[in-house]
Amino acid sequence: MANLVEYFSQDRCVGNVWHKAEGERIIIVVDDSFKLVTHAEPPNAHGYGLKVIFDKLSRYDDTRAIGFFDLPQSTEMEEIQLIANTIQAWVIGLETQQYKLYLLVDYFHGQETTKSKAHGLKFVDYWYENKPLKTEKIAHLSIGGGDLPNPYKLECFRKNSIHDHKEDYKLLPEDFLHWLDIYEHPLSRLWRYSSRWFLNDETTTLIKHNFVEVRKFLFNSENDRDVYQADQYKIKIAHALQVEIPNNWWENETSAHNIHESLKCLAGAFFCGQTSNNARRNLSVGAAYLIALMAHQKVYRNTEVFMNDADTWINCSQASSPIFALQDKETARKSAIALYDLFICLFTPRRQNDYQECSLKKSLVRSVCFYEAGRVLKIQLNWNAQNQSSDRQESLAQSIKTILNQDNINTYEVAQNTRTAVLNLLLNMAISETGFMSPGVIYMEADTLVIASTK
Fold this sequence. Notes:
Helix 10 packs across helix 11, helix 11 packs across helix 12 and helix 12 (about 330-345) packs antiparallel against helix 15. It contains 15 helices and 11 strands. The strands form 2 sheets. A 7-stranded mixed sheet has the order 1-2-4-3-5-6-7, with helices on both faces. Strands 8-9-11-10 form a 4-stranded antiparallel sheet, covered by helices on one side. The protein is globular. It is an alpha/beta fold. The two termini are about 40 Å apart.
């Protein structure tokens, strides 16, 4: 875990700061409760959200530094300049020219909410007029957040709302992440929040490697603590996947066990996209199902078609069978993202009337079923790869044939459409640490996508 250090100016502690060698995002918080950033439970609401901001934003790879500095204790120019100059000196000391600075300024000094205590307004005035550092964005922090003077029409984020997202499995408020220009791939977010899943150590109390430990509180609840742990286990997984998982999937022990094992092939301490240990594994048929679930949620804001059958996971003892070979971390993550992107492209409507249906939650996915004890997954769609596409004069099958028959095939780091999504997936499935190609197949025949393991 990242550690803050005190920052002094004129023999006075005016900040708590942290930085690392990489990244370009710098977040500055100017708040008279800055010392409460080390408190998980601040003694009052004025310190709410500060530690949450630090804990969550310091995890991002592109966050270079975070500094919490005192709000000027008066509106005297000397006091304002002291804080502004201190911030400037600290940022310059990071020795980077490539940065994006985001400035969050508390509104009031102290607990009074009178105009005379609105030191944050004066500080923002000074920052706009003097421009001590190039700044990407400026916003206010406040407990109340409403009906406050806002001459620069800045966004104002409520400390209480940020503090409500303190749990490890929760993301920061969406509007706050948007303001910070943080756009994270759903799978990248899953991997960041699941980094300690499936470890058998004292710091991992819920999502442990051995399901025998999990079943103790999921199915043998003997007290309130067991009930609480069972609820938290389900909540953490649902929030990480960003989908609502039906309770009946957890009510059957075999079903819960099969989901648990499939998750190991997608996230946590045994997924080869997150670990290099000898017991690592790559994407399985069950993991592909979970990725498809996430993609459908992204497109339609629901997963109903995936959850029509309460017994979906009961007869899937082989759902952890691999479809990708073992790969290095970077390649394994690219493989998972390539599969996610393919689902997004296949599930997203093309014609205007289809987009309207999408908004009405009418899915292009007709059915989703496991076969052969989970070794095979079939997703039937409401369109056919043999038929002419609504936005092109050829079918998907013809498009893929045309691309693969070219002398030079262009590749894209990010899928631009269904054709490039298929190409990206094809290339990633060919990569193996022990040879070439994968122990699984992914193909589309007419209106059905088939994902199967041969191992």
